[in-house]
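Subject: complex prediction, re-run

Hi both,

The earlier run crashed halfway through, so I resubmitted it with identical inputs.
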Amino acid sequence: MPTALEDVVELARRRGFFWPAYEPYGGAAGLYVLGNLGVRLSAKIAQLWREYFVTPFNFVELDTPNLVPAPVLEASGHVSNFRDPMAECSSCHRKYRADHLLADAGSKLGEGSSLEEMEKELNSLKVKCPECKASQWTVRPFLTMFDTKLGPYADVTAFLRPETAQGTFVEFKRILEVERERMPLGVAQIGRGFRNEISPRQGIIRLRELRMMELEVFLDPEKPECQYLDRADEKTTLRILTEKARVGGVTEPEEVSLKEALESETIKLEWLGFLMLQSKKFMLALGVPPPSIMFLEKLKEERAHYSTQTFDLEVNLNELGWVEVAGLAYRTDFDLKSHTMKTGVDFSVSVQLPAPIKRKVRRWFIDIEKLKKAYPVEWRSMMKEYGSIKEREGEPPSSLAGVSVEPSLFTIKETEESVNVRKFIPHVVEPAFGVERLMLASLLYAYTTKEDRTVLRLPVEIAPQDVAVFPLISKEPMIKTAIEIAEELRKAGLAVFYDESGTIGRRYARSDEVGIPFAVTVDGQTEQDGTVTLRDRDSWTQVRVSRIQLGKEILNRKTA
RNA sequence: GCGACGAUCGUCCAGUCUGGUCUAGGACAUCAGCCCUCCAAGCUGGUAACGCGGGUUCAAAUCCCGCUCGUCGCACCA
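This time it finished cleanly. Structure:
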C-alpha cells in the first residue's frame, strides 16, 4: 500500500510537477527539475506569498545576484559559520566531523576551537580512526557554501549565495534612498539559494539548490511597534513550542493569541509576532489545516549566528514528520553592522527629531604658530597625528607623536550646537520560506482520493491550471467547438487544459488528478443552444452555462 | 561524510539463490486507432527496463569488485 507521500511524488513526476535532475547521467543528489505544472505552482505560490508579505504593506521587491564576492559573506559571518571542521584520516582518507571525534575522545575542544587546535589535539591525543585505527589527522574546513572564481584570477573568490538576505542588506542604502527613507521598510526577495548539503535527502525536502522567498523588514529599534497589529484578528491563534518549554522537556506546543504571546514576551518583538501570524495565514491559504501548523522556537545552540530569537514554522507532513517550511528570525542589527564594519559604509538611517536638541560643546584646537616655535623640528609629525584625531571634544591630548604637549598650546572654543536628527542602524526581522517545501506541503494536503481516483484539491489560487475543456465524445463537431472554447478562455487570461483522448470519464480523472478546479464539456446540446456544462472538481456537480458567459463565470468562481 | 539496506519498462511485480531456454514476462499507466452522448468501460496495435564501470566465464539481469543514486539513522538546514 503506497503512502500518500509516495503517491504524490509519483504523481509529481508523472504529470510534470517535479522530478530529480540529470537522470540520464545517473542523477545528482539534491537537484530537482520543475516541470510545467511545477513552474506554474511555484509561480502561484510566490504570487500568493506576495499577497501575504509584500503588497498589503507597500513593501518592495529586489533581485540581487546569485554570485556573491567572498568579502560580503566574510562580513556576514557565513564564511566562518557556514562550515564544519572535517578531520581526514591520513591513511584511509575517511572523513569525520573533527569536533565529534574530539568529543568522543573526551577532549575539551569543541566547535568553537580553531582548526589548528583541533588538528593538534587529535594528533597529540592519538585519536584513532574509527575505521582503520590509524591516528594521523589533518583537519580542514568543510564549507557548506559553493565557491567559485570570478573571472580568470584565482584570488577573486565568490560564493553562490546561501540565502538571498545578504544581497538585500548590501543594497540597503540604495533601496532606502529610492524609497525615500520610509521606516519600517520591507524588502522582499524571491530567488535561489545554494547550500552544499553534506547529505541531501528526502527528495525535494533537502536540496542543494532551492527557491527561497525572504522578506527583510527593517525597523527603527526605538519604534519597534508594528502598525498593522490591529489587522491581526484574535481568532487566528499561534501554536508555539517555546525555548523555555523545550529546555524543560515539554513537547506539546501551547496555543496562544498573538496578543498573549507578545504580552508574556514569548515573542520578543511585535513585528516578529505579526509576521508569524501572517505566516500562519499563508499556510492556511495553501491548504494546511491549523493543527498541522506550529512554531518551534530555536534553542540558543540551534540558532544561526545572526539571530537573537528564531521560530521555525513547521508543518506536519505525516510520514515525513514535522517539516520546517520557514524560519522567522529576529536578526537585530547584526548584518548591517557587520557590513559597516567591513566596508566603512554607513548603513544607518537618520530621522528628524521633533525638536532639535541643543547642547554646549567644548572643542580644543592647537595653536600652530606656538607649536612651530616650541617644537621647530618635531611639529610636522605632531601635526600629522593631530590631523588624524577626529574627536576634539573634552580634554586635549597630553602628547602628540610621542612628544608631550603643554595645555597652553591649545585653545578652547565653546559653542552651542543643535542636533536635528537621530541616527540608528535598523533592526531586521526576517521570515524566510522554502518554495519546494511549500509545494510539497500543498500537494500533500490537497491529495485526496474519491472512488479510487486521485483528486488534488489544491486551493483555487494556487492550482497550476484554471480550467479543462473537453468534447463529450471525440467527434466533430464537438471537437471543433471545444477547441474554439479553449482558445476563447485562453484569450480571457485563463490557463486552459484541452484533452480529447480516451473517454469523458478518463478526461475528468486526468484533470482532477492535477487539481484543475473546473471542467467545461461540449456536448450535443451545445450545437442547439450554445450552452456547455461546467463541472466542479471537488463536488463533481455540473451546471449548464452559456458559452458567452463562460469566461466571466469561471473568473467569478475563481475569486469567490 | 559514516553506518545499514536497496536498485529490472513511467509505476508495481516476476526472473537472480541454482549463469544458457531472457531477443527479459505480466499488470496498470502512456501513445495510435476502433468504439464511445457525462466520470479511469471494452477491443486492436505500438513505445518502453536489467543504474554506471570493471572483472570471472564459452556464456552474466543472474557470480565478484568499485562507483553512482535512493531509503533510513547520525550530523546540517529553508
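Residues 4-71+159-335+428-434 of chain A form a domain with the BirA Bifunctional Protein; domain 2 fold (CATH 3.30.930.10).

- K.
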